[in-house]
Design goal:
single chain, alpha+beta, 56% helix, elongated, binds 2-acetamido-2-deoxy-beta-D-glucopyranose
């Protein structure tokens, strides 16, 4: 019996649950939408732009575009209007580890702390990385382009910069879940035995889970900071804003912290003098 392993068991279970939640938050419209990496608010997209759709040959299409241009410019000058909804775009995107969800603000987008009404989520994939440029381009009505909205190139650059990191992060969370799961089993084994082998395997699993979840958390933090800073720095002019996912960061760093604690406890078990039962000549179990 090694009661200190109850501590590592509790830590491993907590880290397993937390990293599973980080990985699967936002899997459905109603599951932990507030535990997203970041929220992108595009409700005022295009604000401050002037649409110029006059370049053409003067045909019927141009007349159509000119009408659209007038409407859009009126909309953009109205400070309380929801430009995104008028363009048939969602108001916001919640970006998660393996997918994103989109929705509209209720009762309206101008209200601070408006309610999020999620209208749909993308399919979940391990290789997921969020590409707002592509998504917004696909949603825009004919005749309106990203250039019309003055979509900044810097946001495209930031998307490219975090593409590989996003996939690495997802893979590390999956590894973290696997190691934390194994650490739960190792801790159970270690509770009922006194052997040095079980203590060492317990430590190995705790340390691997700590490393995987810790590196995943570091990458996630870097991705969040990089993306949110790029959007807020270059997107402010065109009415888009991004917010860091505080709940997600709390969950992922809490998982890292408990695995660090479990690693410290389990290495202490490895180095501790042999247990009393051994000294009294009882059979040493594994
Ligand atoms: C709109 O585009 C046309 C042709 O590219 C250009 O001649 C005109 O100056 C532009 N208007 C504004 C307001 O930018
Ligand atoms: C948004 O909703 C709030 C609360 O219902 C309301 O006070 C405000 O006037 C609305 N704003 C617009 C632009 O409709
Ligand atoms: C969304 O962004 C706009 C413009 O940046 C801002 O006025 C609005 O309050 C934001 N909405 C929410 C719900 O954060
Ligand atoms: C959310 O949006 C859907 C579709 O636009 C709508 O049917 C539903 O009533 C909305 N829910 C709330 C709480 O506003
Ligand atoms: C998402 O998955 C469903 C069912 O697996 C499939 O029918 C659909 O085409 C997929 N959507 C995208 C955008 O890949």
């Amino acid at each position: 019996m090694r009661l200190s392993s109850l501590l590592t068991l509790a830590c491993a279970i907590a880290a397993l649950v937390l990293s599973l939640l980080c990985l699967f938050a936002g899997s459905s419209k109603s599951f932990l939408q507030d535990a997203d990496l970041l929220t992108l608010n595009i409700s005022r997209i295009g604000h401050g732009s002037l649409f110029n759709t006059t370049d053409g040959d003067g045909g019927a299409l141009d007349n159509l575009l000119n009408t659209l241009e007038g409407d859009l410019n009126d909309l953009l000058n109205d400070f309380s209007s929801d430009v995104a909804t008028a363009l048939d775009l969602p108001d916001f995107f919640n970006v998660h580890v393996m997918d994103f969800c989109e929705g509209v603000y209720k009762p309206n987008a101008t209200l601070k702390n408006a309610q999020e009404n999620i209208t749909g989520c993308s399919n979940r994939t391990v290789g997921f990385h969020f590409q707002p440029t592509k998504i917004i381009q696909e949603h825009l009505p004919d005749g309106v382009t990203l250039d019309d909205l003055h979509w900044p190139d810097e946001i495209r650059d930031a998307e490219r910069a975090i593409r590989v990191a996003s996939t690495a992060m997802t893979v590390l969370y999956i590894l973290g879940v696997a190691f934390a799961g194994t650490a739960v089993l190792a801790a159970l084994w270690s509770i009922f035995t006194n052997g040095r082998l079980s203590a060492m395997i317990n430590f190995l699993m705790d340390a691997l889970a700590f490393l995987a979840i810790g590196i995943a958390s570091a990458i996630a933090t870097a991705v969040i900071v990089k993306a949110v800073d790029a959007v807020n720095k270059y997107g402010d002019d065109i009415g888009i804003a991004a917010y860091k996912g505080g709940k997600f960061l709390g969950m992922t760093w809490a998982a890292t912290a408990v695995m660090l604690f479990a690693s410290v406890v389990s290495i202490a078990q490895c180095c501790a003098p042999r247990s009393r039962s051994r000294r009294y000549g009882e059979k040493d179990g594994y």
